[in-house]
Amino acid sequence: VSPMSDEKQLTTDDGKIVVVKDSSEPVVITADGSTLAIISPAAERALTRKFDLRILPVLAIMYLFNSLDKSNLGNAKTHGLEKTLGLKGHDYNTILSVFFVPYVLTAPFLGILGKQYGPNRVLPLMMFTFGCCTLLVTAAKNFAGVMALRWFLGMSESAFFPLVIYYQTTFYRRGELARRLAIFYAAQSIASAFGGLLAFGVFQIKSDTLAEWRYLFIIEGCCTILFSFFAFFYLPQSASTAKFLSPEEKELAYFRMQVDSSSI
């Protein structure tokens, strides 16, 4: 097919060669000329609304916890973390910096695992891991303990954002992604504002057994772990396995992604 043509060829999962006509309402036509599917803009909008309501909020909340667990050390510092752990000199800055070493080194490998086993499984497992690292800070007694936990926290969070972007590309077309990514990325700003308020409230807890800042890690770590279980069983592998879609919507999701595919 000529690059300037308004038609494209593609192969379906069952091996059929079909032709896709680019128009306001793309028509998928089989090789013998019969119409296989008509991708209606109204049906597409209804489908993307389902994705917006069922998938996007879960991913945004996951990223919110990701940002909270990454930045809560600064809030804890304002309420005695350095004194409790006996940090001196540049210890605190070192703890902050060591996070980014595994964050950079392990991101490609976790990205490959996410591509192989599916973001719907790898993302919740990553969330469970960095939730455990956050929770275990409660048991840290010195600089070495927090240093080790921050290392593993950096590993578990390294490919989180790239995998979320990849996961969304399996549901949304290229022209739909920008707005969804903007909404998703806003979760980080919400976490920055919400994190300080949460920390202030938690620091009002008075206890003779634990320092107030440790309760912050207990609450955030436990909430992260609990939500990771929900995400593991809730997120679909793809539109074709989404329980909230009808068979017709699954078929529509498949054909519209084929039309949008750069490999056609």
Describe what this molecule looks like in 3D.
- By secondary structure, the protein is α+β, with helices and mostly antiparallel strands.
- 66% of the residues lie in helices and 7% in strands.
- It has twelve helices and four strands.
- It has helices at residues 41-54, 56-77, 81-85, 91-98, 100-105, 107-117, 119-136, 143-157, 160-169, 174-202, 212-234, 247-260, and strands at 7-11, 17-21, 27-30, 35-38.
- Strands 1-2-3-4 form a four-stranded antiparallel sheet, with helices on one face.
- β1 and β2 (17-21) form a beta hairpin.
- α2 runs parallel beside α7 and α2 runs antiparallel to α11.
- The protein starts with 6 loop residues before the first strand and ends with a helix.
- Mean pLDDT is 82; it is low at 1-6, 17-23 and 29-35.
